[in-house]
Design goal:
Elements: E1 17-18, E2 35-40, E3 43-48, H1 60-79, E4 83-86, E5 95-96, E6 102-103, H2 109-115, E7 125-128, E8 132-141, H3 148-156, E9 160-166, H4 170-182, E10 189-192, H5 196-202, E11 210-215, H6 222-231, E12 232-242, H7 245-248, H8 253-260, H9 270-288, E13 291-301, E14 304-313, H10 315-318, H11 321-324, E15 325-331, E16 337-341, E17 343-348, E18 351-356, E19 373-380, H12 387-399, H13 407-419, E20 428-429, H14 430-437, H15 444-453, E21 458-461, E22 464-470, H16 474-487, H17 500-505, H18 524-527, H19 565-570, H20 580-583
Helix pairs in contact: 1-12, 5-6, 6-9, 12-13
Enzyme class: transferase
Keywords: Methyltransferase, RNA-binding, S-adenosyl-L-methionine, Transferase, tRNA processing, tRNA-binding
EC number: 2.1.1.216
């Protein structure tokens, strides 16, 4: 069935935990034999105990971030409908920035929003969490599984009119209904048992569309995208998760093309490329129906990517789509890359002229190392975040950290997102530049300083720890590396004449790099030691096995293949066997 990634119930390192359940009545009569309860956020969710069902504690960050994003989306949209959003613990927030400045400490956020002049609609109604708002948002979780995410929406996101929690499995739908009732949100959360695509196709009429659609499937969301871009309301929010990172990161470019209409390639920037591939796919499918997307936030974390986009309708704006996509020429030798836009648009007074793009931007071989290029894409080449919106979410989370169990990590990731260069697609990594010419890796701050001294912009990326996003062309990067190699020399006699290192180091640099560390080379998120790249939260923390058809069916474990030959042949483990504890 089409449902969210069901996994073995594991102990979490975060706030989510298994615990005895106490429903609203204060008793445990609603707990069936063998069931257990997982608490995450404000929700307490029932799970059948003997089955690999529905819950991955590592995805708590995903769910927390989604609640935060939908809350700020609701705040913006409902203000236009005359509804004020009220979030517990947000009475007197302080608008924070990475520079350390604070504004509005004595004025509540909602009052500042009402008086800033940007919202002319008078706020006549207050929306609170757990309460139904008649002018609120209609939310669909297309692949709800246990309903954890939908229940958390009902308990933690204000301004909701209804939440439809859908799953193709009848048993999952029944579990969703039980969880909604046990958490006291039965008036908001409605269980549905339909094929997700068919459900969204049924809601294509303008009056029946959803304001928010959340898709978090097991693997690829490609089969749901066409229905989703039609069923989301005008200006509505589409939240999509992809966990098929092996496909999107270049291991199967042909499979990626069949699913997303884009060829993925193996490169150091593969995680940001994956974000741009799904955005390209969303925009391409929306364009079929004269709609287009506006990305609000796109993140690559753990073993998945997550994008939040708004969908609008406009025939004139859809014509810009071709110029927003680009092909990627990536050198297989040194890793230099160039982007080739698919179309070109030029302004002619009040009119916009569209024409075919000219290119390619590279020759037959790489000008730096002489190797060939591989072609990837097309991908989304426009900004993947709305910095103003991200700053709103960051502020709301920072001033109310008790709201989410992963607030520290959300603050760290969003802080990095606000620091990223908006108009610079993809990135290089310092360690890969160094390994290409076989020299020592320069310290990150010194390399960033060299780019700043050369007059270029530079930032880090949330998608990779050692990433460098810069508007400097590849020639400048290699000139800086040549200057670095002069003080950290490479044994040239050991280099192959056909290697990228030999070709690059055979050319003299055209600039004199300065590696003196500048104050602005160290970003604020790094200075403040925010949680930007956390360690693996637990053993075997990645995506788990697909769900089984029914509950409670288990199979006897087979001896692992990595046991010694004696164990595999005799099926007998003696007391002397070093693997005995592992087998037990």
């Amino acid at each position: 069935g089409r449902r969210s990634a069901p996994v073995v119930l594991l102990p979490s390192t975060g706030p989510a935990q298994a615990a005895p359940f106490s429903p609203n009545t204060g008793s445990d009569s609603g707990l069936l034999p063998g069931e257990t309860v997982v608490r995450e956020g404000k929700a307490a969710i029932l799970f059948p105990s003997a089955n690999e069902v529905f819950y991955n504690p590592v995805q708590e960050f995903n769910r927390d971030l989604t609640c935060a994003v939908i809350t700020e989306f609701a705040r913006d949209v409902l203000a236009q409908r005359g509804v004020k959003v009220e979030v517990p613990g947000e009475r007197e927030p302080v608008v924070v920035s990475l520079s350390g400045e604070q504004t509005g400490a004595d004025e509540p956020m909602d009052e500042r929003e009402e008086t800033n002049g940007s919202e002319k609609q008078q706020l006549t109604e207050t929306a609170r969490v757990g309460e139904k708002c008649e002018r609120g948002l209609r939310v669909l979780e297309g692949l709800a599984a246990s309903g954890l995410r939908s229940v958390r929406f009902g308990l933690e996101v204000p301004g909701l009119r209804s939440v439809t929690a859908n799953d193709f499995s009848a048993k999952a739908a029944a579990l969703i209904a039980r969880n909604a009732q046990h958490n006291g949100v039965g008036h908001l959360v409605e269980a549905s048992c339909k094929d997700a695509s068919l459900l969204m196709y049924e809601k294509r009429e303008k009056r029946e569309r959803f304001d928010v659609i959340d898709l978090d499937p097991y693997g690829s969301p490609s089969s749901f995208i066409d229905a989703a871009v039609q069923a989301v309301a005008e200006g509505g929010l589409l939240c999509v998760t992809c966990t098929d990172m092996a496909v999107m990161a270049g291991n199967s470019g042909e499979t990626c093309y069949s699913k997303y209409g884009s060829v993925s390639i193996k490169a150091k920037f593969c995680h940001e490329m994956a974000l741009r591939i799904i955005l390209h796919s969303l925009d391409q499918r929306a364009g079929v129906y004269q709609r287009y997307i506006q990305p609000l936030l796109s993140v690559s974390v753990d073993f998945y990517i997550r994008v939040f986009v708004r969908v609008f309708t406009g025939q004139a704006k859809v014509k810009n789509s071709a110029s927003k996509q680009a092909l990627i020429y990536n050198c297989v030798g040194c890793g230099s890359f160039h982007l080739q836009r698919m179309g070109r648009r030029t302004s002619n007074g009040k009119q916009m002229k569209y024409s075919a793009a000219t290119g390619p931007p590279v020759g037959p071989d790489c000008e730096h190392c002489g190797h060939r290029h591989q072609l990837g894409g097309p991908v989304w080449a426009e900004p993947i975040h709305d910095r103003e919106f991200v700053q709103k979410v960051l502020t709301a989370v920072s001033v109310n950290p008790a709201r989410f169990g992963t607030s520290r990590r959300i603050e760290g990731v969003l802080s990095m997102v606000t620091e990223e260069l908006e108009d610079v697609p993809l990135y290089y990594t310092v360690d890969n530049l160094s390994s290409t010419i076989h020299c020592n890796t320069p310290p990150l701050l010194q390399f960033r300083s060299a780019l700043l001294h050369a007059g270029h912009q530079v930032s880090l990326s949330h998608a990779c720890k050692n990433a460098i996003k810069t508007d400097a062309p590849p020639k400048v990067l290699w000139d800086i590396m040549r200057c670095w190699e002069k003080t950290n020399p490479v044994k040239r006699e050991k280099l192959s004449l056909t290697s990228p290192a030999f070709k690059i180091l055979s050319t003299d640099p055209s600039l004199e790099a300065c590696f003196t560390v500048r104050e602005d080379a160290n970003p604020q998120s790094r200075k403040k030691h925010l949680t930007r790249f956390q360690e693996n939260p637990q053993a075997f923390w990645g995506p788990k096995a697909r769900a089984k058809a029914g509950y409670g069916h288990t199979r006897a474990a087979k001896p692992p293949l990595w046991f010694c030959r004696r164990v595999r042949e005799t099926k007998n483990v003696g007391n002397h066997c070093a693997r005995l504890p592992d087998l037990q």
